[in-house]
Amino acid sequence: MGRSRDVVVESGRGTREPPRPAGAPGGTATDPAVDRAAAAGPGAAAATAPAGAAAAAGTVPGPAGPAAPAGTAAEVLGGYLQERAAEFLRGLRDHAQGTGAGAGGAGGGSGGTAGAADRARAAASVGALRSAARRMNGVLVTYRALLDPVWADNLRTELSWLAGVVAREYSCADRLERLSAALHRLASGAAGRGEGTDPAAAEAGGRTPGAAGGGRRSAGGGAATRERGALPVGAARAGALLERQLTLARTRAHSAALQALGSARFHAVADAVALLASETPFRPGGDADRPVAVVLAPPAEQARRRLDEAVAALPLSRAGAPYNADGLSRSLGTEARQDAAWDHVRVLLRVYRYAQEVLGPHAVPDPRLRPAGEALERHHEAAAAAAAAASAAATPRIAPATAYALGVLHADQRHEVEAARFTFGRHWTRTHPEGAPS
Amino acid sequence: MGRSRDVVVESGRGTREPPRPAGAPGGTATDPAVDRAAAAGPGAAAATAPAGAAAAAGTVPGPAGPAAPAGTAAEVLGGYLQERAAEFLRGLRDHAQGTGAGAGGAGGGSGGTAGAADRARAAASVGALRSAARRMNGVLVTYRALLDPVWADNLRTELSWLAGVVAREYSCADRLERLSAALHRLASGAAGRGEGTDPAAAEAGGRTPGAAGGGRRSAGGGAATRERGALPVGAARAGALLERQLTLARTRAHSAALQALGSARFHAVADAVALLASETPFRPGGDADRPVAVVLAPPAEQARRRLDEAVAALPLSRAGAPYNADGLSRSLGTEARQDAAWDHVRVLLRVYRYAQEVLGPHAVPDPRLRPAGEALERHHEAAAAAAAAASAAATPRIAPATAYALGVLHADQRHEVEAARFTFGRHWTRTHPEGAPS
């Protein structure tokens, strides 16, 4: 609820003033900016506000790709943020259109082929929205010293909230997809490899160089999975239970997203991002006018140091020994699991990667970042899926066969966690760049 | 029930004739040789017959270590078999004494510290007995062409039967130990590493070179495991269920072993091995008088070829990619698992290793055999433990939490299976000897 009335009002008026006056008092204002949102009505606002904002933003992003590297920090950082803001608004507009078109079937897991296409489009737009929000978020952290701090902190909070609220529905769907595919693989041994059921084909699949990199279950294969034969009773019941629970969670998340998209808070975020798409509020009297290498490189370097420190705290040498059994360790216990340190690295790695993106050609290239980051995303998803299986197993009065299948499924996903740690460690330690400072 | 009255009577008389007349008709005689065994009584026979046989055998094994390599095939092969026979009889005698001494507490899982020491001694004697029986068995297979074939086939059958009957009790105990340790590790995360609970120590453990070889859970750590704190309810119940079931199986196996040790069939085996301890029945008119390199090397080479062919049929390249998810594949399905091919290799590898032992200095050394064989033993034990967890989960009316813990445990052991395959593949493909023929 910490959004800025000033920003809303300004962008609502459509006049884009220099950002300095908007930032300073904005973060402290706590009154809900309901005036314009209430006048427009929740439904209409969701569809019109982002579209208008995006149209305004469409004129801003100059040349595609990284901004001219020779410019000032303000040009480079501002250009990056403006592009991301435009992407965010585009995603928001696409999503609002998708939600409007598929409103009838979007509530639960129902819907025909047209509904599925709508859902896929909506998922893609949410993906674009999240990607842009994450990047803005990370950059607002790294380069906070150059930006209006109150504005930056406020926007970060709001971006996180919006991206989270909109994405939750899709992460429920992804989790269900992941767990169903795993159940089918556990029961029939065929899914998840993208191959036939004969061992020779499976072996041939394992022979490809990519498979050696721990890229287990890389293809989604979700649609193919659904067509496979009947599961044994325990696995089938576990699948049905998970589907019930995750579909319920998804429906709730969908309602929450719809509600959020009609809220005043949403309009404030959309307006703030629309403002950002044309103008970046730099800190008054900051260094933003100086050259990129002088101003933008040190914060990125600091992000790298934070990342390195967090990685150094990980038990990497242990994770590098395959089948170290750490993934399942304590999974029948009651205490919290040791995933937090890995998740912390996941976030820091993302922040550093986005800082590198801003620097563009000025950045020291680090080929580890992308594969290591993907491994940590897989770590995160598998851990969440394992937790979903564990929580489903805590449902009262389920059959023992169901609970047994959920136990196997839980362990399987925890081994995915372990495999992801292994992959991360491989990428991180093997291909350390020569030129990187210690 | 296919033992030889001739052998029994001869060895009972204590006169060791050349083996030729005993072998030929021996395998075909089907009458039970109950006369002497019935006269001695089951209990006394179990204690006296092996002791007497071992005493007779004690005079036979000449110099320790491999027999003189320069001798004939008969000397080398006969010497090897005689040493193994003496070991077998010694193990049998020790076991009979141990069973007699600890008869009160040997039935179930009860017994104090004295009972535990007795059990440990009895387990050691059974281990020696099994090891000798396996070696005789393997050598009888590999060098069958040099031996009296009917005698060899008959003795193999009987050795397998006896070793299996006596060892089953201890493998039940080992399996329970393994599963309890795994449950404690899964619930508390500390057991199985032989380290404290702090992650730093665990990581330090992972840093040792041995741990990188996939030597997960190498130390038994069973005694330490038992002293750890209380498990969560599901794990505790699963542990109690497994303990009930495996203790019942162990008690049954113990009774069966006692019964077997009092049977006429047992006396026939003991007598046949006692005969072997002094004299090897070679095939009449065979090559046994020719030099070792000419006669014994080709069968060993053939054993190696059989092993290589079986290994070539394994999906080794897939198993060599860590976290390939094959171990758990189909584990919720109903069809049989794909462990048979690996188990086949385990047996063939053992047979080849024993053939190499016979050859001694004449053998081409293959440093892969021992670590690869150990990995396959671990494969076998983990697969059996996973099956025990799965079968416990099929118990009617268990609580869902119990079934859930058993599912996690099952998956954990299947991942041990996968880890063992990985370790085997590493050993097999990395350190291939230079001089080995393709």
TrEMBL record, chains A, B:
UniProt domain CHAD: residue ranges: 70-433
InterPro entries reported in the protein's UniProt record: CHAD_dom (IPR007899), CHAD_dom_sf (IPR038186)
Record field: compositional bias (Basic and acidic residues): 1-19
Start-end of Gly residues biased regions: 207-223
Xref: Pfam families: CHAD
PROSITE patterns reported in the protein's UniProt record: CHAD (PS51708)
Biased composition (Low complexity): 27-49
Spans annotated as Disordered: 1-49, 190-228
Domain of life the protein comes from: Bacteria
Name of the protein: CHAD domain-containing protein
Taxonomic source organism: Streptomyces qinglanensis
Organism phylogeny: Bacteria, Bacillati, Actinomycetota, Actinomycetes, Kitasatosporales
